[in-house]
Amino acid sequence: MDPIVEVVALILGFTGWVMVGVALPNRYWRTSTVDGNVITTSTIYENLWMSCATDSTGVHNCREFPSLLALSGYIQASRALMITSIVLGTLGLVAALIGIQCSKAGGDNYVLKGRIAGTAGVLFVLQGLCTMIAVSWYAFNITQNFFDPLFMGTRYEIGEGLYIGWCSAVLAIAGGACLMCSCKFNTQEKYPLPYQTRGTVHSGPAPTRSMAASTYSRNAYV
Length: 222
Fold this sequence. Notes:
- By secondary structure, this protein is of the alpha+beta class.
- The protein is built from 5 helices and 7 strands, in the order αββββααβαββα.
- It has a 5-stranded antiparallel beta sheet with strand order 4-3-2-1-5. A two-stranded antiparallel sheet has the order 6-7.
- The two termini are 53 Å apart.
């Protein structure tokens, strides 16, 4: 295991985990577009939990979504994926702190620590994938409604919360990949075999010259 790569992977995974926590409550997952509007009196912005509006005087008002079952399916799925991402990232951080080589939490069994660190890498990759799927699915619905000429509702554009989610997903996947590549699951050293003579294992001292000479075939003599 390479300690430097493990530390870099831990930093990347931790940064991605923090950015997921920042992206989830961010209010600007989507914002109402001003494209085609001459006069804009209010701006609407939403995330997975609430919808807010700001008028021209700067006064804003937010309301939470009243019903979970009344929400669109992609919003419910994005909620579940983001929460799962935070849980996986938390478990990955704990496993990485135990499994990295410079940590004393896992003892001196480096084979076990390598496997724990590899598991942490898998958890980080799963965290990144959950985040990537959630924000990409949400962004797909935004762009689909925006370019649909038959859509009569409010058109939105991609907000900063989605960009934070994409960055966190990339960092988490990169950190997990570094952990999985740096950890060797089979780190047992291969020791040299004891001295063998014609299939017999000798655990004692090395044989004398006369004993060694007796093992040679006749072709060794002139």
